[in-house]
Amino acid sequence: MWRFGKVRRPADTAPMTAAAHPSADTVVLAPPLPPPAAALPSAKSRKLTPARTTALVTLAYAAYAVFLTWPLATNPGGLLSGSLPYADLGGSVASIAYVVNHHIFPFAPATFHALNAPYGLAQPWVENIASLPGTALLEGLGYAFGAVASSAVFLWLCFVLSGSSMFLLTRRLFGSAPAAALAGFAFAFYPFAIDKLNGHYQYVDGWILVLAVWRMLELIDRPTRRNALLAGCATAVAMWFTFYFMLIAGVAFAVLAALACMVWTLRGEKQAGLRTVLVSAVPIVVLLVGLGALAVLAGGASSGGVRTQPIQDLYAFSARPLEWVLPDRHNLIFGGLTSGYLSSHLHGSNFGESSLYLGLSVVVLGLLGLAIAIRRLRIGGRAALRNPALVAVLAGAVLALVAALFSLPPSVNVFGLKVAMPSGIVYLFTSTWRVFSRFVELLELGLCIMMAFGISRLLAGRRPRTAVIVTAVLAVVLVVDLWARPPIRTSSTAPPAAYVWLRDHPGGIVADYPILVGDVPDYHALFWQPFDGHPVIQGYSVGSVSESIKLGLADLREPTTASGLAALGVKYIVVHPGQKGATAATARRYHYIVRFTSPAGSVWQVGAQPAPTAVQDLENFSAVQGSPGGEYRWMVDGGL
Length: 640
Prior knowledge:
About 50% of the residues lie in helices and about 5% in strands. It has about 650 residues and is of the alpha+beta class. Strand 11 and strand 12 form a beta hairpin. The protein is elongated. The termini are far apart.
């Protein structure tokens, strides 16, 4: 605003001429007075506050997640991430779609009548309860956004929350926002997380592990009963979040509890510390006892509970040390050099579980941080153990080491000696878990804590401009080093013509060919069932009676197949390219009526009469093998 008044000439200025000088009583407009000093924004207030920094870093992670998955953001309701829409991701989306469309409560017994027709598929409600927080989040997003769009929202949340949680933890520990931002980026966007675009999004949720580790570090620093309960509850929620975190978070808790006891002993707080560890274990014991009792009362595996795995799977789905240090096959610089080797050395696994590159830059910076921390611990002695930053680096190193051991095969050869690894020891007690390579999440978590400390020391005491340059250089190095963005990032969910035809011709059960064993991740039939509305014979569990019956109908050239399909109430079959016997001659000979054809698949109607005899209920039989007239099936897993 402007002020009105008389203009007074300062005493030290020369008088103006009569022509130019207004009279003393003239009223003129003068510029406003400057505001008081207190009203001016100080240099300190103009800086980024912690809240603003967190918001900017979170937005940066979100932007990179959208870029990483582009063009998913252009049509989240019509695209799925990754290049394998009918693999595990398609099965997950199909399950959510069925639950949402039929308004089924996921945590109670229920039957999916349109799946595994005509028998129906029992909902794995025990397994859903065993991973209640993660399942509730997935199903809740399904109700809010739809089954397909919810998968995109969940994926983006996984990336952003993982990065932001690591940022918040390491900034609190080491006081350096740039170092924390780089650590958060590395934890959110390393190759294992990026390769989950094809499914198993839950294992991108490293943020839940970060929260559990964070609370344990707070407990080590201040062993109070409140911190113990918070640490125990955080760990219990992480274990409850999804199936494999039951093991991974439990191992993290045991490792940090042992480290805590050692630190407290050296600090002279042994008795108080031991009591708090026992208190922190209470929520975990309550969770395990509750879930164990539920599994027993519900009938175990029959309700989707405890599963068993052959030990060969542990060897296939475990880590090999070279996978930690060889850049990803999609790496901008080295991908051309490593792709061939990695593709030919999958040892029975797949890239979704074997993209385990940690980042050489992350490893080097992490080792730098560990070296600095060890040096300070040696200089400071036991008094240095009261520094939470140094203890956190030590905890990160121990977590990384233990996670590396757990991710190895059940046994390894060391100088000609066969040495049992933790995965093999776990298998002696339970065969529930098989993909021990997923311990790479805990391994990367520990390395990122170490790396953040190393970067914070590199930036400490440097001029602001120098610190900005160093941070920018390290950011570029991390992006290039961890680059694993695949060339094909989305798949369309536009329905194939065969399923459009089925939608327009309701009634009857549909069988999708080829018919495969229950543990083969091919979810064509389940994915399109909500669209075309027909019950499908697929959805049977591996080793079940239903699987055994339907595998006996896998060969369209077998004379009894058409009548067997009719006995199950199958009206149509969808024949995909590559199916053996899918010829016009086969259709005419065995009473199939070709109703629709397209390059992506055709629809045949079953014209045979139902088989007059019932099929004997046999479990645990393999798919039919051999040529027509000489078929045979193997008994597997103790089938009778």
